[in-house]
């Protein structure tokens, strides 16, 4: 898996599997169109794409995947960048897909039986969220934690100084994940949850959200408010980490990747002899996804992908 530029969910030829190459994803159901494994594979690859579309480092992966396939940069550069974010990417895609498909609690069984090499990503995610067992809280937390790892402001300097082709490991998502894992603990997480309630504009509603046992009792009419509160919690945790120097690294403001995107595309287009890369920002609300994950950013060469639009 780490030897290619792709992110794979693939155990054996008889198992539904998929691949995400940082531009598009593929899913092979092996005849199991509605099995747990097929559904999990589909959501897993989809979440890889959304992490890239909602973070600065992820945008670099997507742009560089496109450039490498046009032989404008060495493919080894992309492979190195993928390796330096592999653990973070797989934690995000594996755990969020399980949360979306397991409303009654994380179902490790399908992973243990059919994708055993991915069990470690579930365990790593659980370690980051020590003591927090509720799915809706875990979803907000893991979103914040992994996005923080991919939102390194030093990437802006790499871009300005024309050093993007040689990003150091210390500035990678997985290096930041290691620091974050040493910073997080159950006491800190519970303090954040309490402070979220205390500082929220409607503390009673925030407390009701935190105290909720699960999201199965939410009526459709309350789903919008529920999702909004989850997004509010995710944003709160993100900002708590960003504003605390003791975590050991600096973090962009939550939406700074969008400004970075414009500069990144301009950088990439200087390499292209024709058919500039263009950006299609289509805000798409998708059930169970945060507003950041729903900022769909599609990269396409007018020549190569014109038939898609």
Report Rg: 19 Å
Biggest sheet features: 3 strands, antiparallel
Per DSSP, the total helix count is: 13
Q: In total, how many domains does the architecture comprise?
A: 1
Q: Could you give the count of β-strands?
A: 5
- DSSP strand content: 5-15%
SSE order, as H and E? EEEHHHHHHHHHHHHHEE
The side-by-side strand order for the widest beta sheet comes to: 1-2-3
* Low-confidence sequence ranges: 8-12, 283-309
Cα(first) to Cα(last) distance is 31 Å
Structural class: mainly alpha
Mean pLDDT: 81
Give the oligomeric state of the chains in this entry, treating copies of one chain as homo and distinct chains as hetero: single chain
Give an overview of the whole structure.
The protein is mostly helical and about 300 residues long. It has one domain (about 5-309). Helix content is about 55%, strand content about 10%. The chain is built from 13 helices and five strands. The chain has helices at about 35-55, 55-70, 75-85, 85-100, 110-115, 120-130, 135-150, 155-160, 175-185, 185-200, 205-210, 225-240, 255-270; strands spanning about 5-10, 15-20, 25-30, 275-285, 295-300. The strands form two sheets. It has a three-stranded antiparallel β-sheet, covered by helices on one side. Strand 1 (about 5-10) and strand 2 (about 15-20) form a beta hairpin. It is globular. Mean pLDDT is about 80; it is low at about 10 and about 285-309.
């Amino acid at each position: 898996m780490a030897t290619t530029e792709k992110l794979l969910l693939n155990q054996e030829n008889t198992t539904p599997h998929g691949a995400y190459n940082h531009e598009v994803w593929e899913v092979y159901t092996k005849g199991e169109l509605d099995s747990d494994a097929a559904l999990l594979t589909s959501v897993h690859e989809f979440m890889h794409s959304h992490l890239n579309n909602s973070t600065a480092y992820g945008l670099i992966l997507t742009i560089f995947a496109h450039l490498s396939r046009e032989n404008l940069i060495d493919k080894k550069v992309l492979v190195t960048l993928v390796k330096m974010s592999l653990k973070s990417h797989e934690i995000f895609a594996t755990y969020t897909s399980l949360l979306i498909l397991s409303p009654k609690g994380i179902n490790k069984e399908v992973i243990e039986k059919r994708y055993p090499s991915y069990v470690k990503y579930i365990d790593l995610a659980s370690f980051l969220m020590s003591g927090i067992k509720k799915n809706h809280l875990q979803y907000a937390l893991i979103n914040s934690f992994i996005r923080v790892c991919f939102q390194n402001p030093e990437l802006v300097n790499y871009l300005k100084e024309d050093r993007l082709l040689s990003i150091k490991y210390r500035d990678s998502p997985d290096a930041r994940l290691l620091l974050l894992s040493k910073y997080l603990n159950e006491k800190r997480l519970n303090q954040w949850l309490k402070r979220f309630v205390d500082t929220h504009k409607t503390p009673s509603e925030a407390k009701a959200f935190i105290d909720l046992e699960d999201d199965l009792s939410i009526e459709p009419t309350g789903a919008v408010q529920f999702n909004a509160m989850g997004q509010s919690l995710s944003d709160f945790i993100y900002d708590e980490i960003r504003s605390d120097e003791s975590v050991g690294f600096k973090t962009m403001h939550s939406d700074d990747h969008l400004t970075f995107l414009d500069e990144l595309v301009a950088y990439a287009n200087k390499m292209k002899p024709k058919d500039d890369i263009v950006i299609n920002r289509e805000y798409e609300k998708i059930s169970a996804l945060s507003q950041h994950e729903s900022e769909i950013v599609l990269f396409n060469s007018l020549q190569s992908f014109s038939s898609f639009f």
